[in-house]
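Write out this protein's structure.
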Amino acid sequence: MSTAPTPPPPPGESSRRELGAFLRSRRERLTPKDVGLPDAPGRRTPGLRRAEVAELAGVSVSWYTWLEQGRVRTSEQVLRAVSRVLRLDAAETAHVLSFVEESSPTVDVPTWVSRNLLTLVQAMTPHPAVVLDPHWDLLAWNAGYAALLTDPTRLHPKQRNLLWLVFRWPPARTLLPDWEHEARALLGQFRSRAARRPNDPRFAELIGELLSDGDAARWYERRETAGFQPSVRRFRHPAVGELRLRYVKLAAVDEPGHHFLAYLPDDRDSEHALRRLQTGG
């Protein structure tokens, strides 16, 4: 006799569980000394006790316990207090605050790219440019992007994803001299996005694919998070050599959830290299 599959928990409940697991992981990495408390001998609890966090944050032990268990909603004020106690950095604090549940409905993300945005992407050539959806799936790109990395039309549609290219496309580790730093930061940003939508099937599909990579699995298990930081990224291209490109990210206001990414040359040599990629010379 077959049984019906267990339905997934409500979205809010899943998010609260993810938040609780993240707070617990950060509590366990601290010591009493880190927060100005005496370190009593014979402690068996790794990191801080829940009671210690609750006292320093100004909430009851029961409430903080329920927070880690994903049983309660809470306010931005409480989460900021807990973030300060747990010594979270700016990216981790932003990650925690993203779990504050809002009453406004979620806006549907369009699956198409407007003519205006497509025109902008193409006009950026020879500078690489691409449009991403909330899962970082590639929706549109120009010839510059295809020349710098690979032509996404050669990939299976499920593989046309920024994080897939970084972790599962073999040439990426050679193309990016700072691959570990870049990959780890991108995975931290992606985890922050995915954690807010735990029942999203595309996020679940991508995470399953990424966790087949040993580095991604190890870093993901640590619940590392990161925020986007404009930076200069190095590429070592087999056809034109070294490039230094500034990574620019813009939100498409009239297409909620879509982001426009461009790679701009940081010096004249990189500018010339991008042009040579287009001409094949």
